[in-house]
Design goal:
The structure holds two protein chains of two kinds. By secondary structure, chain A is α+β, with helices and mostly antiparallel strands. Chain A has 19 helices and 14 strands. In chain A, strands 3, 4, 5, 6, 9 and 14 form a six-stranded mixed beta sheet that branches. Chain A has a four-stranded mixed beta sheet with strand order 11-12-10-13. In chain A, α2 (86-102) runs antiparallel to α14 (377-387) and α18 runs antiparallel to α19 (448-459). Chain B is built from twelve helices and two strands, in the order αββααααααααααα. Chain B has helices at 2-33, 51-58, 60-97, 103-116, 119-130, 136-141, 154-179, 183-191, 196-226, 229-234, 246-256, 260-287; strands spanning 35-36, 46-47. A two-stranded antiparallel ribbon of chain B has the order 1-2. In chain B, α3 (60-97) runs parallel beside α7, α3 (60-97) runs antiparallel to α9 (196-226) and α11 runs antiparallel to α12. The chains are: A alpha+beta, B mainly alpha. At the A-B interface, α1, α3 and α18 of A face α1, β2 and α11 of B.
Chain lengths: 470, 288
């Protein structure tokens, strides 16, 4: 037997690593330098297949249609993607009603909020074809996903008469077609300490100081004055501007929409950041920071919920999910709700999970049946009564049971027509850029004017609000 | 020769799967970094050459984020290592006295706890501890310090929380190292009249030095490439961009903006930095 050759272990490891690295770099360089010309396949609503030739495109692998066959032979199964949370749980609770009334089996798949966007994009943009219905479009995604046109408009399945009862359809209508049906509507309201606002002593003191009656603020000037009046640190803080990125952008909406502005122009596709409305909105936001509790920079609206219940906050703007809790914990005599203030209109931001049928849906007709059920009077009423969200239908607002149970229904009705969504197809990127600029202003590194100019002319130079090439 | 072939055949399945799950994504990542792929805008994967790298090296936010991440890595890893070493030494001394046999497991249990708690839960607890109005820390020191919202303190607060969470990693590695040193060395040192510091400096440190280097390099790479959850939960990268660490920036570009070309470029930069750093540190350790 010959003696095996001794190899220096270190040299061996380095040689191995070097070889792997060389192969990796070589392979990447080869693929990068030799982009193959391929075609992408898009499955359309009518299940016809369109082949789109591309020139500079490399490898777009269209995922194949996936149908999970867990259904018994002959059964009709509608596959629905939804966001984890009370709204999805409610569908689950009503699942038996749906299945009984339609004879369709519901397969509901839930995704956490932080991953649902990606899952929706896979369906609506890349055309994965795994679901018949995709739910979970938040308000900030309305324009993004509508512009991608990866869905079959619901008006292909529902008649104009059937669509008539739905509120605020213009917010989810694209190129003349209604995109889907919201499971519910959601927007922000102003929550305040009713007991203090209605206290005669406070009213008298306010009148003496400001020369007018103490009322629920309707304009930003009134908001400022009321916040200033009730700002009594450390016992109580006047108003909460939140500083955590994902919460700050809600405040940004409220003030901008209340000024009648938006981030883009839907008609021209222009990005509208350096505008008088935006400047005024930021000016008020900066002024309101004075009345925020210490540490607001790291707070979200959830902190506002706690501070309000602990009696440390006089008022704040928040999604109305909190209304039921505040009423239950503080009592109707202590807490009040009002339309969000605004100089041009109530500064309200619209959201709610929109249900849509992807173009790649394996069973679009079943998807339409599911959406019809979601939009039915019976389901909408049940959702309002059991979850507390606002209905997507006008007629449910007038239902006697709903009127009897929902506190502040008229106020909700008053605000809904004004609730807006951001006009920008790349909103998360825009939001983070604006957040960065806003805090440069807070730190005193920039003025509002220079920050908005920087955003429009440097940070997002050449960008448009609607940037979709399909 | 037959043995070598057999050996290769035996390890081939493992090599194949490692290659599949580690090498292929890396190659694809490198590939994407030379392209623009933004599905929110278009489904085209467009070759852009070095444009993404040019962007990464000129974008102030990327540079700032790299700086913050390096600062975090150096500060938190140093703090964790020093604390870990100090506590490991103290525990070893207690062990040597033989007086704490019953208490020792309790100590070890307490020290392993931060490491065992999920980071998200730990971050939520630290968020409450740091709360400016109701936080334990401010109540303890009788001041109202904005731990997470002060521009100059936010990163420091994250480093403290991370050091608390990760210090046991060093502690247990170092403790194991110290415990493996033959007791004769300590006995001889004692006869020669060595102080505790001299024991530490001339017996412990040289003998566990390789461990220190390996632990430092592993943890530094981990801190640099994986610090995300603690920052996400405590500050969300704010206030402003004050604590926007590099993994968070990569996450945003990939899964928030869906600009995969930019995200892949940032990931490659991150991998390259940690690879260079790790290799240098390990080579130095191996030479020693």
């Amino acid at each position: 037997m010959s003696e095996p050759k001794k190899v220096d272990r270190r040299k061996f490891i380095y040689a191995g690593l070097g070889a792997v690295a060389l192969i990796a770099i070589g392979a990447a360089a080869y693929v990068a330098m030799n982009p193959p010309v391929v075609t992408q396949t898009v499955t359309t609503a009518t299940t016809a297949t369109t082949t789109v030739p591309t020139t500079v495109v490399t490898t777009v692998t269209q995922p194949t249609t996936t149908v999970i066959t867990t259904k018994p032979p002959g059964a009709r199964v509608v596959r629905v993607l939804h966001v984890s949370g009370p709204e999805a749980d409610h569908i689950r609770a009503c699942q038996a009603d749906f299945e009984k009334s339609t004879g369709i089996t519901l397969s509901l798949e839930l995704a956490p909020r932080n991953v649902v966007d990606e899952r929706m994009y896979r369906e609506l943009i890349e055309g994965l074809g795994a679901y018949d219905v995709v739910m979970g479009w938040g308000g900030s995604m309305y324009v993004t996903l509508m512009a991608t046109e990866g869905y079959i408009p619901i008006d292909k399945f529902l008649s104009a008469k059937e669509l008539e009862p739905f509120y605020a359809k213009d917010r989810y209508t694209w190129k003349g077609h209604v995109v889907g049906i919201p499971q519910y509507h959601n927007w922000n309201m102003l929550f305040y300490r009713k007991d203090l606002l209605e206290d005669p002593k406070e009213k008298a003191a306010f009148k003496a100081k400001y020369g007018r009656e103490l009322t629920v603020p309707k304009t930003f000037k009134e908001l400022y004055e009321v916040a200033e009046f009730f700002h009594r640190p450390p016992e109580m803080y006047g108003y909460l501007i939140t500083g955590v990125n994902w919460s700050w952008h809600c405040d940004n909406y409220y003030f901008l929409f209340g000024m009648g502005g938006n981030f883009g122009n839907i008609e021209t596709g222009e990005l509208t950041l350096n505008t008088p409305q935006m400047a005024k909105a930021w000016d008020y936001m900066l002024k309101m920071i004075k009345f925020a509790p210490p540490g607001w920079e790291a707070m979200s609206f959830f902190d506002g919920d706690n501070l309000m219940q602990q009696g440390k906050l006089f008022m704040y703007n928040n999604w109305f999910y909190i209304w039921k809790t505040l009423l239950a914990k503080m009592g109707p005599e202590k807490v009040g709700m009002a339309p969000p203030p605004g100089d041009v209109q109530p500064g309200a931001s619209l959201s709610g999970w929109l249900a849509t049928i992807p173009k790649s849906a394996p069973n679009p007709e079943l998807g339409a049946e599911f959406i019809k059920w979601i939009g039915s009077y019976e389901y909408q009423k049940r959702h309002v009564l059991e979850i507390g969200n606002m209905p997507a239908r006008k007629d449910v607002f007038d239902d006697p049971d709903v009127k009897a149970k929902v506190v502040g229904l008229e106020m909700f009705k008053e605000v809904l027509p004004y609730a807006m969504s951001p006009i920008c197809t790349w909103y998360p990127e825009l939001r983070d850029g604006m957040y960065e600029a806003f805090f440069k202003v807070v730190k005193g590194e920039m003025s509002i004017e220079s920050a908005l100019k920087w955003l429009q002319e440097e940070k997002f130079k050449g960008r448009r609000a609607i940037e979709v090439k399909r | 020769m037959r043995k070598q072939t057999l050996g290769f055949l035996l390890v081939f399945p493992s090599l194949f799967f490692v290659g599949l799950i580690a090498i292929y994504p890396l190659i694809y990542n490198i590939f994407i970094s030379f392209h623009q792929y933004n599905p929110l805008q278009s489904l085209e994967i467009r070759f852009v050459g070095l444009q993404n790298y040019q962007w990464a090296f000129t974008e102030p936010l990327v540079q700032y984020s790299l700086y913050v991440t390096l600062l975090f890595t150096v500060a938190s890893v140093s703090l964790e290592a020093i604390l870990g070493l100090f506590i490991a030494f103290a525990l070893a001394k207690i062990e040597a006295t033989g007086t704490m046999r019953i208490v020792k497991p309790i100590f070890l249990g307490i020290f392993i706890l931060p490491w065992a708690i999920p980071t998200v839960s730990a971050a939520v607890s630290w968020r409450l501890i740091y709360h400016p109005m109701f936080g334990f820390l401010n109540a303890l020191i009788g001041a109202q310090i904005m731990w997470l919202s002060d521009y100059n303190l936010a990163l420091f607060s994250i480093i403290m929380a991370d050091a608390w969470k990760t210090m046991p990693f060093f502690l247990f590695i170092f403790l194991a190292g110290i415990m493996s040193i033959p007791t004769e060395h300590f006995e001889a040192a004692k006869i020669d009249g060595a102080s505790d510091f001299q024991e530490f400096r001339y017996i412990i440190l040289p003998q566990i030095w390789a461990l220190v280097l390996v632990a430092l390099s592993m943890r530094a790479i981990d801190a640099f490439t994986k610090i995300f959850d603690m920052v996400y939960m405590l500050t969300g990268g704010g206030p402003g961009i004050t604590t926007k660490v590099f993994p968070m920036l990569i996450y945003e570009y990939a899964l928030s903006y869906f600009k995969f070309g930019n995200a892949a470029t940032l990931a490659i930069i991150s991998i390259t930095i940690s690879l260079i750093y790790g290799t240098l540190l390990l080579r130095r350790g191996l030479r020693k």
